[in-house]
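User
Take a look at the entry that follows and flag anything odd:
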Amino acid sequence: MDTFVQEFSEFLIENELAANTAHSYASDMQGFFTMMGSDISTKIIRSYIEKLQAQNLSIKTINRKLVSLKQYIAYLNECKAAKLIVRIRQLKQQRQNYLEDILTPNDFASLVAAAEKSQDIRAKAIFYTLYYTGLRVSEMLQLHTADIYENTVTVKGKGSKFREVFISKKLQQVLKEYLEVRLNTAENALFTGQRGQINRQTVDRIIKLYAGKTRLKRTKAHAHNFRHLFCKTALEKGLSIDTIADLAGHTDINTTRIYTRKSKKELLAAIDKM
């Protein structure tokens, strides 16, 4: 069966799935074989779903395993001439209208305090830039040292679209403080390290480092969460949805609505006050 799984992974990669996704699907199939054996039929799949539900797995997890199974059947039909005809229906789930594991202002303050305690001015500057601008990491890494003296900066976002980003006075102060200790001063890029301009992986590592120091949940420790916090804060400060969409570079206002939803904790607190 391991040979089948290996060949299945190669099939997925050849069909332009990412290596991590292929590994995940192959892992799901190993679990299927352990639980159900090698035979596949509509009846067996129905039993498989029932066993997954009995494990109290989330609907999202179960549906992903069903996608893995569907891909495996496609592999058998295409590469092994299996001619399997089975129906796999994913479980339905009501759309979740709240956010989980999002960054809060207190979380942000804790990250900044941890960076200050470690005298890591660069980390502090990164946290402030992500939060005060709502920039994606790829956009933030486009910034140059000269940009911090401007009120607005033009960045290239998704879909090669350009937009203006505001640089607040408070952010300028933080970035000027960072410039005093910045490495590789010959570089034009704002955020640098010993080897030159830093990359996305370095930013991710910095966030996770200080999340660990503050005991912040790892599910919260990613750059995109600063973008969520930017949008939510802007809404709470009275900015309209369409204005926030412009600031965040969203072409679809419904995307902005997702960013501005309440968290599960906030909804529970609101209901408790009723």
